[in-house]
């Protein structure tokens, strides 16, 4: 989220002062990364003030209108009767909670971000004394929905399910009716995490201790990145983790656990168990999932690009390019029905015909680098799974968020449980992948120093090994088996050698001359001064792609050399020269 302009803060204060209910303040406006974050912000603030918001109107990719759940009026749908009759004189209690509450908040998408404004911040009713009185408190949590699904598959009845849920949560207010509703959604195939983002606050709603200031000052706890094993996102039991740092702000984005050996074996076992039914799935069905997958990627491309920019530091334009390059491979996989055809030659000699078929290998694995968090995973698992293989993916521990989002989209597209699994870690997981006898093929992408890791491991089983050695200057692709060494690449100077500027020399608005001299001298010494001058090769030059990738890294380094208040002003510029000229 970004800082609020001063005039918006004044509007917030005006709305607060004009509220009919002094204990119910409107949520502060702000800018949010996506629609879900905006809705979550409004919902959490509303609960702290004693009211609940609902979605009144929504155009998913453009606007969402949120209102108080007590908005609107009760409409008597009973037939009209004679005014002189006794029935007319009898007053009927409607039981309606609707009071035509005028509260309304609007979120609109503007230049890739969602902006929240308060159209009407007033209420005409009293706040709830306890949020548990509200019907939303009877909703199930995501974990409870998954448990209901498992117990339903096991043949338990709704009352038995509810009894077991109350053993772990005695405060559960749900009834068998709510269990029946969830079971109906299970039968319809509508059970996803997105459909059950429930709201069950545990504290009184009247307390106004929620920060009523700029929402950007509200620091959320960093997320612990889960593993994907057997179609479920599960938290790792490992106590060791690696912080994912936003290179522009130096804030912690998430914690990546170092997957344990048992969890890795569980992921491989899940992939192995899913292989037989998946390979027997008709190729047209597998191909149809890829068609849906590429459609979902296009739908959520804004979220994917923002995630890349947040974790990796790429400019938003480059993040879109990262995704689109990988999307080309997904589209290629959509034609697997013809690509997987074999060959047939009749009567090659007297009475002999020859034919060849293409068959899936089994469990495959992929090891991804830091540089292209979306493109490389999309190079790997879509083609592998469409051919009938199952896959274990290890994304880079520095930017794993996009891989998890892609996996979620693949599951939403219809990929069965266990076909795609994700584990996290460093060299230990890489070694475990190479040592596992159940993994029949590995796709590996990374710098040359990492490319030598697998070649040093003795292969005692038949293994197909594909290595893509990517550097900032060239790409080398080799294929090796147990008796063929991996070819080493000639590596140019990489921008990974750019060191962070010490905090004392970061641009703070008062030290431009010292900062600019340091940046100029440092990049000149690294041979990267052409990026500040904009003197790169033309777009028609074959060397432009490598130079453009280096320019993205220089942009990220420049942002990291400034305080967040300054880097935010040039976050959406398209080149290092534009940033240099703007500053």
UniProtKB/TrEMBL annotation:
InterPro entries: Ald_DH/histidinol_DH, Ald_DH_N, Aldehyde_DH_dom, MeMal-semiAld_DH. Residues 204-217 have a biased composition (Polar residues). GO terms for molecular function: methylmalonate-semialdehyde dehydrogenase (acylating, NAD) activity. Residues 233-452 form the Aldehyde dehydrogenase domain. It comes from the Eukaryota. Coiled coil: none annotated. One of its GO terms (cellular component) is mitochondrion. Residues 202-224 are annotated as: Disordered. One of its GO terms (biological process) is L-valine catabolic process. PANTHER family: MALONATE-SEMIALDEHYDE DEHYDROGENASE, METHYLMALONATE-SEMIALDEHYDE DEHYDROGENASE (COA ACYLATING). This is Aldehyde dehydrogenase family 6 member B2.
């Amino acid at each position: 989220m970004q800082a609020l302009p001063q005039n918006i803060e004044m509007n917030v204060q005006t709305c607060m002062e004009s509220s009919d209910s002094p204990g119910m303040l409107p949520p502060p406006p702000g800018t949010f990364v996506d629609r879900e974050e905006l809705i979550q912000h409004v919902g959490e603030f509303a609960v702290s003030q004693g009211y609940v918001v609902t979605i009144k109107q929504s155009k998913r990719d453009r606007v969402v209108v949120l209102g108080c759940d007590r908005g609107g009026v009760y409409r008597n749908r009973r037939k009209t009767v004679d005014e002189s009759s006794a029935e007319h004189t009898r007053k009927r209690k409607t039981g309606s909670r609707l009071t035509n509450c005028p509260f309304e908040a609007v979120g609109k998408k503007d230049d890739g971000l969602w902006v929240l404004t308060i159209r009407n911040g007033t209420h005409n009713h009293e706040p709830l004394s306890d949020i548990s009185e509200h019907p939303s408190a009877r909703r199930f949590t995501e974990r409870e929905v998954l448990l209901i699904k498992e117990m339903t598959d096991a043949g338990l009845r709704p009352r038995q399910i509810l009894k077991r849920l109350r053993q772990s949560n005695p405060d559960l207010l749900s009834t068998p009716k709510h269990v029946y509703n969830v079971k109906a959604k299970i039968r319809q195939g509508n059970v996803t995490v997105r459909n059950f983002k429930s709201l069950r606050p545990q504290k009184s709603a009247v307390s106004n201790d929620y920060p009523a200031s700029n929402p950007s000052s509200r620091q959320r706890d960093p997320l612990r990145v889960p593993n994907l094993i057997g179609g479920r996102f599960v938290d790792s039991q490992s106590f060791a983790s690696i912080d994912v740092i936003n290179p522009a702000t130096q804030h912690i984005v998430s914690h990546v656990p170092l997957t344990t050996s048992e969890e890795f074996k569980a992921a491989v076992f899940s992939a192995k168990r899913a292989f037989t039914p998946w390979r027997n799935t008709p190729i047209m069905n597998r191909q149809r999932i890829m068609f849906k997958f590429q459609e979902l990627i296009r739908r959520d491309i804004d979220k994917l690009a923002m995630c890349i920019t947040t974790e990796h530091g790429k400019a938003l334009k480059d993040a879109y390019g990262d995704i689109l390059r990988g999307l080309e491979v997904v589209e290629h996989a959509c034609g697997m029905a013809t690509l997987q055809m074999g060959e047939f030659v009749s009567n090659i000699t007297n009475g002999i015909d020859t034919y060849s078929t293409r068959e899936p290998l089994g469990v495959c694995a992929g090891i991804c680098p830091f540089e292209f968090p979306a493109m490389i995973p999309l190079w790997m698992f879509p083609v592998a799974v469409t051919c009938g293989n199952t896959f274990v993916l290890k994304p880079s521990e520095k930017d794993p968020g996009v891989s998890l989002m892609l996996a979620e989209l693949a599951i939403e597209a219809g990929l069965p449980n266990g076909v795609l699994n994700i584990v996290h870690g460093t060299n230990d997981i890489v070694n475990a992948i190479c040592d596992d006898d159940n993994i029949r093929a590995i796709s590996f992408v990374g710098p040359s120093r990492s490319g030598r890791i697998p070649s040093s491991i003795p292969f005692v089983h038949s293994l197909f090994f594909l290595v893509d050695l990517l550097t900032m200057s060239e790409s080398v692709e080799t294929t090796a088996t147990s008796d063929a060494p991996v070819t080493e690449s000639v590596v140019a100077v990489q921008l990974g050698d750019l060191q962070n500027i010490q905090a004392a020399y970061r641009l703070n608005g008062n030290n431009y001359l010292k900062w600019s001299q340091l940046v100029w001298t440092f990049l000149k010494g690294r041979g990267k001064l052409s990026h500040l001058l904009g003197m790169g090769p033309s777009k028609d030059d074959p060397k432009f792609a490598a130079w453009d990738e280096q320019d993205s890294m220089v942009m990220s380094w420049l942002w990291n050399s400034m305080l967040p208040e300054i880097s935010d002003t040039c976050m959406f510029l398209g080149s290092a020269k534009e940033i240099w000229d703007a500053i």
